[in-house]
Amino acid sequence: MKKTFPFLFTLIGLSILGILFIQVTWLQGLFLLQKNQLIEKVNQAGVVVSADLGKKLNGGLAFHFPKKSLSLSGGGHSHSFEEATLSDLYSFQDLDKRLKAAMVKYGLQDLSYEFALQDKKGYVEIKSKKFEDVFVDEVNTVQTRVSIIPQEILETTGPFETLIIIVPNVNTYLFKTLQWVVFGAVLFIIIVLAAFLITIRSLIKQKKLSEIKSDFINNMTHELKTPLATISLAVDALKSSKVQSDAKSVEYFSSIIKEENVRMNKHVETILQAAQLEKKEYEINRQLVDIHDLIQGVIDSFKLQLEGKPSSVHTQLDAVPSEIWIDEEHFLHVLSNLIDNAIKYAKSEIDITIKTKTVSNKMIITIEDKGIGMTNDTVKHIFEKFYRAHAGNIHNVKGFGLGMSYVRWVIDMHKGAIHVSSELEKGTKVEISLPMVYPK
After folding, report:
1. Is the pLDDT of residue 378 over 70?
2. Is the pTM of this model over 0.85?
3. Which of 30, 58, 136, 326 has the smallest number of CB atoms closer than 10 Å to its CB?
């Protein structure tokens, strides 16, 4: 897993980059294609208008009064007598009407455009309001020029008058026409990225789970190997004629075998509990239980462990009434797990305080110790299955990391709440809140 994970990460990452590159390239190509099609349509619309305007022109000369004209080349105003132009035949409104009809014909009814009519010498005869503003912008516009050729002319040689059509903000228009395509492409990219992140997250989770399970198997092997070795030594000792002749020695080694057998049974029970929780086979059988009696019974069950080193267990059982609707067997295991943790993670001296009280139809059970404590990060993960806090370079306290996940499950099934607070070298406090009444 350690070797394949970086390879899979790199492979998937390169695949995602490839897909993103193809998507971006495709969008760029699509924009370019749409832009070329837009230019072609605008040009065709201009050709239609120019053909319509050319019907009233002819190749002969007709004179008219002087007029003012503006040169695009900056030549200023001039007066001249020359042949009739389109500005003598059509007004701005006539040109605008014809252009709009041509744009509709080619499906460009929503297109914003500016236009102008240029005479043979390059002077603007008719122009739209914002034509001069967009004429100088060559980056954000597309421009098309169509010569207006008289219909009766025999030779198509210029110069001719020119219709200039400019589309401003062309990229904005193209984006609007392609917004659903762009949205779909972006959505697809987001989905691909999300799938990539989910895949990586799953791989990391599987990697972590694999490490946790390996750690669990190692712990389980050591936990079962120790009592088996102790039992084997005790059995060998009982075979000795010297031990057999001493009743106290027989009783001593027999008690060792019994204790180690109980210890192994607890380990097996813990593993079976985890398996049943995984399959959700557990059921809650509620009955009215005196919590004070239950706590005292659990404390008594740890008598031998408490006698192993200096210890003190303080109780402040103030809950009134002390009866509560719970599953006695499950809650017995909950209290055993919590007190066992307080003992295992104690310092040189065991100091445990157990309190009960009732607040607003809820029973509060507090188990507090003055042990080695935990970091905030450990507290965050303490209810995760197989999770165990590390101390030093290895786990120096044996266990499977299943106890607290089981505790959380039992509390949840009782519609209660559990809160853990801890500080390194100062101890841990576990507070359980349970409803006093039987839940409906």
Report:
1. yes
2. no
3. 136
